[in-house]
Amino acid sequence: MKQIAQNYKTGEISLLDVPVPATMSGGVLVRTEHSLISMGTESMKVRESKMSLIGKGRARPEHVQKVLQSVTQQGALATYKKVMNRLDSYTPLGYSLCGVVAEVGPGIDDFVVGQRVACGGDQFAHHAQFNWVPKNLCAAVPDGVRSEHAAFTTVGSIAMQGFRQAQPGLGETACIIGLGLLGQLLVQICRSAGLNVFGIDPSDERCKLALETGATACSSTDTASFETMMAKLMGMTGGHGADIVFLAVGGQTNQPVEQAVQVARDRARVVDLGKVKLDLPWGPYFEKELDVRFSRSYGPGRYDPTYEVQGVDYPIGYVRWTENRNMQCFLDLLDKKLIDLDPLVSHVLPFDDAISVYEQIGQGNYPGLGIVFEYPKENGVKNGHLERRMGSIAKSATATNGATAPSTGQATGQVRLGVIGCGNYATTMILPHLKDRSDVSLVEVATATALSSANAQKRFGFERVSTDYKGLLQDDGIDAVMIMTRHNSHAAMVCDALRAGKTVFVEKPLAVNEEQLQSILETIEETGNRRLMVGFNRRFSKLLVELKAAWGPHAGPHVLRYTANPGQLEKGSWYGQTGSEGARFVGEGCHFVDVASWWLGCEPTEVLAARTTDDPDNMIATLLYPNGSMAEIAYMTKGDPRYPKETIEIFGDGKVGKLNNFKNTELWSNGKRTRKRNVAGVDKGQSDEVEAFIAAVKSGGEMPIDLPSIVSTTACTFAALRSASSRKAEPVDV
């Protein structure tokens, strides 16, 4: 299929051939018929992409703070790679479309194949021939609504939410500052609700359009025009002014805020819908006691992954108008002809001409407000099937009953590698160590979204791209598989890969609960395939390996203290979806358990853990070992984010060892201190971890971490959670 994408680093816009997205549970695959270009939002992204790095930083100051924090914890080099990876990659455009349901994911009974739906969301409703969209971001399109009009639904729901935030009353007067697409939709929504509407915009054409669709009077920014409009406004309101002022505009000028106070009555409501400068003049706003409100995008549910991605609705008795119900309401207004979009649709253009369309927009050759792409129906389908694997596909292996022998790279001397999942960690910390190796062939990358696979192919040269990981596993031209997806998917993919006879590397954690771990153990027993490695990279860090070697043999029990300072998660982070992705201690604490067991030379038998009452992730776990040693893992989520993320201290045999955030070490022995420092900055062992895995695949020899250790580490994290709940020591059950 084809999809429009932008390189945020260079500003280049491309029309890419990419695989059709996977159909996942909780949503539907939609074949796009029409999608709307947002002249405000998308033009802003295009402008920002052409700025220098300093300009991009000024445009997004909130991101600069995150970069500075990352430098402190991860080091300058790792942070630079992370930032460049995000910038120099394809990013999607578009967030409002109408299409037809092509496939229905598991757990969906709201929609059926062939049904027309309007879709929203800048993570889902892209300018692409197919999109997977969660159910709460889809709304059924009535038969009487044309597809090119339904494509406006997302922007319409933004206008609906702004309208609701104003809490308008019948017969009130509204003034809309900014008569772009959002402002024009507000004009019609207000008129359909019985409000008197005035408008302000620098463009005479937009003022004229608003008058044609129901506004009482409009003003451009020149003094005479504004005074004429003000006279009508005051005449209609008895000299009081507007009850509601909508700021449907963006930019760095403070003029809209200053105009708002001029047109507003005493104690009026001012509602901000755009990204506008808000330097409120205190005196005038104080004197009128204006009520300034914000409208958050499409409505309640926006930016909440539980609502948007997991599909958990808000009860209508408590939240009458969610973002999905706003979408439905807008479509209902279209169906009842209370909103007329014909005057707003300036162009309907072929999607195949998308690149030239964006070029023309940049040159100002499409001055209209509503530009809609129209999509062909045939692309994305090959031999009657949706095309989810692109490239030269090797002969597929016959479906097995679980007895397939593990494959290695011994026959060719080259490891033929398939990769499942290709997020930021994979592309910055793992794949760069594989890119230029002559003994590794990057055969296929499979991701849930099309652009992720396209980015991976662009950066690392994969022969094929796919959104079908099971097709990758059935390919007998692949020896080993690296799984780097979200946590909850690891166990099932590991089982599938082991059954397919692959050597498997999976990022931590191996499993997020006991049931998943048990399923993996049963699969290993069933297939006899034990060729499994988990990405416990820290034990491979050169600094830590050298510190352990310098320490020498253990003469007695040791005490190891591992302090982690991961900090608070960003709002909406998938890492915090503990119901589906597992607890943070399971997802990250397994690293620290692995290091402790590796250093102490045995596996823990018992765990005693406790956590604070305000945050279940803020916890300390004490691990007891059969040789008398113990390890304390302090996983602290409430610390200063600029403080180093990880510190390890070891006590025993009359010695003290310390590792400071994988930057340097100290060894105290016989009253002397020996220091070592990594000149390259933070090194958490990913390069050596990858080297060890590839060597094991090539030779067919033992895996770098033995299976009992991997299983014990995983089980230990579950025991820690049980202990934190029970407030007593829990055994590490394997």
Commentary on this structure:
It is a single chain. This protein is an alpha/beta fold. It has four domains: 2-152 and 305-374, Medium-chain alcohol dehydrogenases, catalytic domain (Quinone Oxidoreductase, Chain A, domain 1), CATH 3.90.180.10; 158-294, Rossmann fold (3-Layer(aba) Sandwich), CATH 3.40.50.720; 396-534, 3-Layer(aba) Sandwich (Rossmann fold); 538-685 and 693-731, Dihydrodipicolinate Reductase, domain 2 (2-Layer Sandwich). It has 24 helices and 34 strands. Strands 33-32-31-30-26-29-28-27-34 form a nine-stranded mixed β-sheet. Helix 8 (204-212) links the parallel strand 10 and strand 11. Helix 3 packs antiparallel against helix 4 (76-87). The longest helix has 20 residues, at 707-726. The two termini are 46 Å apart. 48% of the residues are buried. Residues 393-402 have low confidence and may be disordered.
Outline the secondary-structure elements.
Layout (H helix, E strand, L loop, with lengths): L1 E6 L5 E5 L9 E11 L3 H9 L3 H7 L1 H14 L1 H12 L2 E3 L3 E9 L11 E5 L9 E5 L3 E3 L6 H4 L2 H13 L7 E5 L3 H12 L3 E5 L3 H9 L4 E3 L3 H14 L5 E6 L7 H9 E9 L9 H7 L2 E4 L10 H4 L14 H13 L9 E6 L3 H9 L7 E5 L6 E2 L2 E2 L2 E2 L24 E6 L3 H7 L9 E7 L3 H11 L3 E3 L2 H5 L6 E4 L6 H10 L3 E4 L7 H14 L4 E3 L7 H10 L7 E6 L13 H4 L2 H17 L5 E6 L7 E6 L5 E6 L10 E7 L2 E6 L3 E6 L2 E6 L8 H14 L7 H20 L3 E2 L3
Parallel strand pairs: 9-10, 9-12, 10-11, 12-13, 13-14, 15-16, 20-21, 20-23, 21-22, 23-24, 24-25, 26-29
Antiparallel strand pairs: 1-2, 1-4, 3-5, 3-7, 3-16, 5-6, 6-8, 17-18, 19-22, 26-30, 27-28, 27-34, 28-29, 30-31, 31-32, 32-33
Helix pairs in contact: 2-3, 3-4, 4-15, 6-7, 6-13, 18-19, 22-24
